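lol ok so funny story. i was supposed to be doing the assay writeup but got distracted and ended up predicting the structure for this chain instead. priorities right. anyway since i did it might as well share w the group, maybe its usefull for someone
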Amino acid sequence: MEAALPLFSGDRFAELSVILPPLLRDADLVAEHGPEGRAVRVRLSQLTGWLLTQTRQFEAADTALTRSLDESSDRLQAAATVNTQCWLLLRRGRLAEARELATRWADEVEPRISRATPAELSAWGWLLLRASAAAIRDNRPGEAEDALRYANSAAVAMGREFAPRDDFLQAFGPVTVALKRAENAMIVDKPDLVLKLSARIPTGGMRPTSNNRNRHLLDVAEAHARSRDYAKTVEVLQGIRAAAPQWLPNQRYARDIFGRVIARRRTLTPEMRRLADAIGVPL
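and the output, tada:
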């Protein structure tokens, strides 16, 4: 499982499709031999649920995440699983459920900031970000801003981007909060603000998860598209394709963005045709 972590964090879905089934079978076997083995299965179920959510296999993702949560004996690991469950609910459009689940767990794991560890701040901060994401999509801007403000407090207390090598899902800090603030701005149709916020996000030493960074870049591409700067939109999408070729085809958002670009062009360059093929946009 440890050897497979770079495949998860690097969005290398093709390789994972080969190794994950036998890895899950082996995890079931080691789980029969005590707490350490069960902890391995809990962690692998959590990662599998995250991967299945990423690739829009929602029913299977729900099964894996429920199993991980039911078997978890670690409060912070359980909170990380709930974080992904909230993301799954968001992707399925179940906004009220996502908001309520994130808020309830954020209340349960809220640390005493002056004594909190980075892992505790990360768990709390991420649940607040999920609550904010659900609220802004459910036309609750006040709740969204409150949750984002508390998440920023956790990030400020952390002081830097926290990205442990053994658990990329815990990556959290000021940069991650900045990315999500820009995402909220895009949800309420403020492309100028998205570009303004994006320009302020530091890139040196930036270590949020790759999919969070690339998700932000989709917001940047969308902001350029809404500003009718289609050349810049294509440039940003090409950059994402180069950085995450297996991640991009799973993003419906990317297909929507590029589909609108194509609809406004009379002719397509060969590079644009290759990009359309990579994203899955019919020509």
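The chain has a mean pLDDT of 93. The two ends are 40 Å apart (CA to CA).
back to the writeup now i swear
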